[in-house]
Amino acid sequence: MTRLTDHERKQFAYKSIFLIGLTLAFIIFLLSFGFKLIINGSLFINQLANGSKNSPDGIKSEQALTSILVDPPPSATSSSSLLVTGSTVNFDAVEIYLNAEKITEGPVVGDIFSEEITGLEKGENRIYVIAKSKKSKDTKKSPEFTVLLKTEKPKLEVSQPNDNTKTNKQEIKIEGKTDKETYIKVNGQPVVVDSQGAFQTLLKLNDGDNSIEIIAEDIVGNQEKKTLKVTYSKDD
């Protein structure tokens, strides 16, 4: 009985020491990490609750996805008016600015906006759009676009032939000069224009009077025309 009693006492002591050690380890863990986890968890739940109260959709306004996309306007135009179109996300109105001045304001319908602006000035015009919302103070500005307004006809100088020329050569040279980035057509056929605006081509003539139409057209469609008469006769 004595040995059995001693063995049971030792087993009880080992179990007691193990339980005490486990309890101390749990207390240390709780002091080091447990309270932080509990506090952080409480804060997270509180933020979720406050976020739901601040926004009818359960999402904070500053976290809502917003964007504005403006369809790129033409780089150049011959008209003083321009249609500005595009789309937005989570905005209901747009303001359109021309050369840093607010020109017009319009609604966004089904995430789409379309507004015509007027008053473009000769030369370069800077255009951008600001999207805004009635539900919040959030705004977003689009990239800035540059549109060139050209209303003057392009230059067209024909150095040869002269009007009312008479010749016995069936092929004649057409030569002249225009502005850069301008297209030339002679009797409807395109002619190469070099980087300085010079052009030349050969044209086959018919017997008798020939009407030669030369058209210069710039990148926005402004045109200048000249019509020459050249008479071809083998006997001349």
Task: Write up what this structure looks like.
The structure is a single chain. A hairpin with a 4-residue loop joins strand 16 and strand 17. This protein has one helix spanning 2-54, and strands spanning 67-70, 76-77, 81-89, 93-98, 101-107, 112-118, 123-132, 139-141, 145-149, 156-160, 165-167, 171-178, 182-186, 189-191, 198-204, 208-218, 223-232. 14% of the residues are buried. The protein is of the alpha+beta class and 236 residues long. Mean pLDDT is 85; it is low at 51-63. Strands 2, 4, 5, 7, 8 and 9 form a 6-stranded mixed sheet that branches.
Outline the secondary-structure elements.
Elements: H1 2-54, E1 67-70, E2 76-77, E3 81-89, E4 93-98, E5 101-107, E6 112-118, E7 123-132, E8 139-141, E9 145-149, E10 156-160, E11 165-167, E12 171-178, E13 182-186, E14 189-191, E15 198-204, E16 208-218, E17 223-232
Parallel strand pairs: 2-9, 11-17
Antiparallel strand pairs: 1-3, 3-6, 4-5, 4-7, 7-8, 7-9, 10-12, 12-15, 13-14, 13-16, 16-17
pLDDT averaged over residues: 85
For the record, give the distance between the C-alpha atoms at the N and C termini, rounded to a whole number.
152 Å
Question: Radius of gyration over alpha carbons?
Answer: 41 Å
Considering DSSP H and I runs of 4 or more, what fraction of the residues is helical?
10-25%
H-E order: HEEEEEEEEEEEEEEEEE
**Helix/sheet category:** alpha+beta
Portion in strands: 35-45%
SS element count, helices: 1
Largest sheet: 6 strands, mixed
- The backbone outline, from C-alpha atoms, is elongated
Low-confidence stretches: 51-63
- Number of separate strands: 17
